[in-house]
Structure formats: structure tokens, C-alpha cells
Design brief:
It is built from 13 helices and nine strands. It has 318 residues and is an alpha/beta fold. It has one domain: Alpha-Beta Complex (Inosine-uridine Nucleoside N-ribohydrolase, Chain A). The chain has a nine-stranded mixed β-sheet with strand order 3-2-1-4-5-6-9-7-8, sandwiched between helices.
Length: 318
């Protein structure tokens, strides 16, 4: 089975960390080509540093991390330190990264990567969709080479940042509008799904005893935390869509009413999103557990695939 070519757009973020480590721990199914960061849970500079830390933890020093937009298209920044801690990684600790972010802004990097890919690329949208929306606006042709945009956000049963909206969609509803109407397949991992992915203490304790860096880190990260593995649902869908109950529907997002900003509504018409409303919880945690127990040796072949590199980078390869 061919591996999914994957760009992860993220704002790490505790649940982003679980999602990234789940993707890294599933190398037979996912080919993580690039990580892009955007201001969200914490400021974008912290998001970038955390993404680099997680690459090092997973021995994925080959994955380029491009820093992107510091804020939404038309909204002020909305960091949630009270949820993710001052570092974005709760009470867990990772050393300062030795890796540096790749040169160049995330948005043109996304465009170039998708245009250069010889196979369709899947985008995991774990954060406000600002980078993705700007890439689609600057280069609408890339939608033809996107397998799917799988995004965390949306709910028909109340929000988690307001009574109506989920955090990512409330943070940049205009970006969501662009993505929903870009022409590429869009999958929406709802808050209804995320709420089914709260790890229990026994599962975390078992993970802590596995003697694997990723598993031990996640166990430490979730010590005493009531949060769910929201963003991991995006990666789980990419790994195994059969885990989810989905429906093809048409939705729009509120962009004007300040009270209901970011709320999604189901409307009549041809579907523009696959909406996931439920997940096989047991199967999901089996998948996450297996990924977090994976250990990649430091001497693994990390040579990049030239199809996602710029001409100058290709010329510089040995």
C-alpha cells in the first residue's frame, strides 16, 4: 500500500504533539514531508520551536519545519496559554531544539511542495487554517494535486472556545471559508469526535511503562490533564478512515456575527465536506498506542524525496 504524502500544518499545542508523534510513529502508512506552523494555541515562534523539539524526539531530523503566519487573516491572535501552558507543551519538558527552522515562509513552501509532488498530497490541518487558505488563494491550481485537507474543527453541538464555535474555526473563520470552497476534498474532524478521545489513566500508565520516548513524553504531557487528543483524530482518519462515522454534507461558516463567529451550519446543496461525527474509540487508542511505541533509530535513512524539494535544494543534494 502506498504511503500517504503528508504536510502537517500545526500549532503545537499538547494535542498537536500527540498527532505529530502518531504520524511519525506510523511510517508504513504516512510519509511526513513537511511541517508548517501557524500562530494558534501559542505564538508562532513557540509553535515552531515545539515542532522542532518533536522532530528531534521522534528522530525525524529530516523533516523540514517552515514557520508561517503569526495570526489569522482578519482576526487578532488568540493564544490559549491557560490550556496548553506557557510553553505550549503543558507541564512536560523537552530540551531546546538543536534543529533550526527551514528557510522560507510556510505558505510558498506549501505551494511549491504540492506543485512539485509527483503524487497527490494530503494536508493535516491541526490549527487555524490560515496558512492553507493563503496557499490556496495565492495558487488555486494546487487544489488539483491535493488528495484531501483533513481539518480539526467544527461542531453541531456546541463549541469549546465559545458556546457556538470550536477553537480552530473561531480563530480564523475566513480561512475556513476559503478552504471549504477551494475545490479539493475536505474532511472535518468534529468536536463530537474529539470528545470521544480522552485517554484514561490506566492507558496512560501502561504507555509510560513502554520504555519508548514518544510514549513516555505523552504520558508525562497528560499527567493530570483533562484534555482530549483532539488533533490526533486528524492523523487517525488519514491512517484509517474506517474508524470514523462520516457523512457527506454542505456546510457554511459564520464570519460576520461576533457572537456566533466560527459556527458551522448545515445548508442545502452539493456537499463540500465529509463530516466525521463518531469514532471507534477502542480502535483509535490501539492505533495511537502502537504509533507511540514505535522507535525510529537515529541512523535510519533520512534522505529526502527530491520531488518535494526546490531546484536549489535538489542541486545541493550529494
Amino acid at each position: 500500500m502506498a504511503r500517504t504524502r503528508l504536510i502537517v500544518d500545526t500549532d503545537p499545542g499538547m494535542d498537536d504533539a500527540v498527532a505529530l508523534l502518531t504520524a511519525f510513529g506510523s511510517p508504513d502508512e504516512t510519509d511526513v514531508r513537511m511541517i508548517t506552523t501557524v500562530g494558534g494555541n501559542v505564538p508562532v515562534s513557540l509553535c515552531t520551536a515545539n515542532a522542532l523539539r518533536l522532530c528531534e524526539l521522534a528522530n525525524r531530523r529530516d523533516v523540514k519545519v517552515h514557520e508561517g503566519c503569526p495570526k489569522a487573516l482578519l482576526q487578532p491572535s488568540n493564544a490559549v496559554f491557560h490550556i496548553h501552558g506557557n510553553s505550549g507543551l503543558g507541564n512536560a519538558s523537552l530540551p531546546e531544539p538543536t534543529l533550526a527552522a527551514a528557510r522560507g515562509h510556510a505558505v510558498p513552501a506549501i505551494i511549491e511542495a504540492i506543485r512539485n509532488s509527483t503524487e497527490k498530497v494530503t494536508i493535516a490541518g491541526l490549527a487555524p487554517l490560515t496558512n492553507i487558505a493563503l496557499a490556496l488563494t495565492m495558487a488555486p491550481d494546487i487544489s488539483e494535486n491535493i488528495q484531501a485537507i483533513v481539518a480539526m474543527g467544527g461542531s453541531f453541538h456546541g463549541g469549546n472556545i465559545t458556546p457556538y464555535a470550536t477553537y480552530n474555526f473561531h480563530s480564523d473563520p475566513h480561512a475556513v471559508h476559503i478552504v471549504l470552497n477551494c475545490g479539493a476534498p475536505v474532511v472535518m474532524m468534529s468536536l463530537e469526535v474529539a470528545r470521544q478521545l480522552r485517554p484514561d489513566p490506566a492507558w496512560l500508565a501502561n504507555l509510560a511503562g513502554a520504555d519508548r520516548p514518544a510514549g513516555q513524553f505523552v504520558s508525562e504531557l497528560w499527567r493530570g490533564s483533562p484534555l482530549c487528543f483532539n488533533d490526533a483524530s486528524v492523523i487517525l482518519y488519514i491512517l484509517d478512515p474506517a474508524l470514523f462515522q462520516c457523512e457527506d454534507i454542505r456546510v457554511e461558516i459564520e464570519m460576520n456575527d461576533v457572537v456566533r463567529l466560527g459556527q458551522i451550519r448545515r445548508i442545502q446543496g452539493e456537499h463540500n465536506v465529509r463530516f466525521a461525527s463518531a469514532v471507534d474509540r477502542e480502535g483509535a487508542f490501539r492505533r495511537i498506542d502502537a504509533a507511540l511505541r514505535y522507535s525510529r533509530s537515529a541512523d535510519s535513512d533520512a534522505r529526502p524525496d527530491v520531488s518535494l524539494l526546490s531546484r536549489s535544494e535538489r542541486d545541493g543534494l550529494p
